Amino acid sequence: MGALTDMKLEGVLCEFCGVYIGDEVSYPRKCKECQRAEKEAFSAELGEIAKDVEIAALRGKITQLESIINEIRAWLKSGAILTAKDPSGKLLEFDDNGEFISNIIGEISLPRK
């Protein structure tokens, strides 16, 4: 091998940029600047992975919500009356088109015949 390659392998020169680091240590090493750049690149890559994981989790939640919405729509089409609580805790009643009917007391009604 060439002299520069030998010096990089011995740790005298930075294995990436070739800047002088110091005395021979018998293994390749990086200068402080290349170490910092490598950490920044690694952090950026981890950030992208975290974003991808977060997006995948959100897609999973959206899929679950879509499934629940489809179940409610099918249930409403069967003629059932849907009840839900408003922010104050009052029960609200909706017809099979999802239109508000009234405030009620009670739970989910049976399908109308």
Task: Describe this entry's structure for a reader.
The chain has a three-stranded antiparallel beta sheet, with no helix packed on it. It contains two helices and three strands, in the order ααβββ. It is mainly α and 113 residues long. A hairpin with a 5-residue loop joins strand 1 (82-85) and strand 2. It folds into three domains: 1-30, no CATH class; 31-77; 78-113, no CATH class. The chain starts with a helix and ends in a 9-residue tail after the last strand. The radius of gyration is 32 Å and the shape is rod-shaped.
Observed structural traits:
single chain; 113 residues; mainly alpha; 3 domains; 3 strands; 47% helix; rod-shaped
Note poorly predicted spans.
none
Major sheet: size, sense and barrel closure?
3 strands, antiparallel
What is the CA-atom radius of gyration, in angstroms? Answer: 32 Å
Count of DSSP H/I helices: 2
Query: What's the rounded overall pLDDT mean?
Result: 79
Query: Which geometry do the CA atoms define?
Result: rod-shaped
The helix/strand order is HHEEE
Topology, number of strands: 3
